[in-house]
């Protein structure tokens, strides 16, 4: 009968602790924050670019486009921040109420303290949402400010927005583990449609003298 040899491979305590920390880290939560940031930047990019294209359909002055885009940036960032704050605060209230129902005993144990620390922060969520919106919205504003010719300015805005949308679509596909080509195509067509509809309707309303 052949003898059986048991081989024990020692594992250092540092590697064990590192593995435990990786298991405890919530990668899904980080992915949600990143996807929310990408969506906020995409919203700011498309919203402000569409506003600028709409104004550019009836006015050729660069000042009018820049002022309209800046107003859209400020209004959109404030709207995103307020909406995110209310939404996350409501979610936090629901989770706190659920924790109180699950913990009827007096006092707080270590698990309950960790749960409270893991609750979403409404202020942080609002700031992140507003910042991501502004980062997306600033792109068409910057490129339009340095182009004098009206037609070229519109083309540069469309090209810049298209490139940024492809990048955002790629990031969203990587984070969501979805097909990159389909994701980029969907977001690119959606951005084109938003700008084209805004440009066309504003051009039509301006032509009939409303």
Automatic annotation (TrEMBL):
Q: Which cellular component terms (GO) are annotated to the entry?
A: vacuolar membrane
Identify the keywords attached in UniProt to this record, alphabetized. Ion transport, Iron, Iron transport, Membrane, Transmembrane, Transmembrane helix, Transport, Vacuole
Q: Is Ligase one of the keywords?
A: no
Question: Could you name the domain of life of the organism this protein comes from?
Answer: Eukaryota
Where the protein is mainly located, per its record?
membrane
Q: Where is this protein found? A: Vacuole membrane
Q: What is this protein called?
A: Vacuolar iron transporter
This chain's source organism reads Deinandra increscens subsp. villosa
